[in-house]
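fyi for ur records
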Amino acid sequence: MTIERVNGALRGVPPSTRLPIFIAATLWSGCAAFWVWRLQGWTVDDFFISYRYVANLAAGRGLVYNLGERVFGVTDPGLALLLGFLRWITGWRVEMLASAVFGAALVGFCVVILRAEIARGAGLVAFIAGTLLVNSTLLWTNNGAAAPLCALLLTIAALQAPKRALLAGTLAGLAVWVRPDAALAMPVLAWLQLRTSRRGAMVSTLAAGLVILAGLLAANSYFGRPLPQTLHAKTQMTLGHGENLAGLNFWPAAADSFRRHLGRPWALAILASVAGLPLLFRAASAPLRLISALALLLAIAYPILGVPYFSWYSILEIIAGTYAAVTIVARLTRWCAQGSGLGTPRAFAAITTLLSVLLFLPALGRSYAMARDYTPPQRLVIYRDAGLWLRAHSQPDDRVAHTEVGVLGYYSERPIVDLMGLVSPQPRAKRTLAIPRGLRSSAAEFVLHRAGGRSEDFVHRPWFTEAYESVAEFPDPQARSESLVIFRRR
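which gave:
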């Protein structure tokens, strides 16, 4: 990037703050590029469902999972359209493109927040929190998620809202395209604008509404429904799951994930985040207030919707919570420094940085360990190998049935019978016991089974053993009992 382009990107930023923003953006971009290279696109299995939609779109086969089936099973349609375009013009692997967009959006978001917070004298907090976020293992294990891109569009909208209401509304509407649950941010954005311009609030709200309506109409025309069916499928998945991870158990179920990524003081970090949120709502810049409000609304909405907990649902909460935790550390530091010799700006900056690092030291340790020792999850590697085996040992129209269809479907490039209903033409019934009926009516040539999985309900039944035989097995070196077995119709 040339100096001229940097200056163009920073137009409107006071010269005294351009250098800190440029240094922070360079540092964060280097961190994000490292993580993209290190992870090589490996992420959670569900994201590969969207990647298969993207691959088909870029190849001219339409935004579909199985050819000829227009099922609205892609949760983040705006991101899928963007990735499809990038895949078409670059030819890069979809998973690498998704990881790169994730990293670029995360860095862009942190830069926007840094610019806004410097203007109100809180640049140090924004820099510390941004550095923690671009190295967060919880975020990067979910690389490819749409949350950072959604957050970036919303923060730019909040930044542009006072003077460019039409642009702000358009960007906010596109954020809903990227992730439909971003619609909860629309009332907050309108409220933030009402404080400065009632007319601006009306214009941006109208623009956002028109963009969202255009997306709903386009989706309904193409898929036959305006919203993804994944919400219904996941709520039904909860009903058939042996362990309840939804409703009032949604956030308690997140404790294991927080403990794994934040380390031993995870509860203290969460407590600091909750304590710092009121400070963000009261005094932070408009972009950070908007994202914090959206994170809080989603934290309330997910349990009400009845979806089971997945780690990518907490990305926005982690983002807002990190800024809130560092904010409360800075506030406590300033309060303790009053009346002492530690009240100088340099001392304040040093102590705030030190305490923030100590609070998140275990999380940083996990980031270091992941950067040094990362290997792809063995379960997903097995699914990739099974998918490649199916591509080599089956016909293009042979149907494959399983309950986890992300990596498997992406690499096999075969028609998939999704026994959980995320991308099936008709959502499955409520209970896992309905899976055998769906399988018997699917005429699947291949069926995959993992010991202890949901297919355990039917693989030992007489009708299945009479119809299918084992043809391949992919053992898990870490857990032999969890081998993946491929059955073929006799």
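The longest strand covers residues 468-474. thats all i got for now
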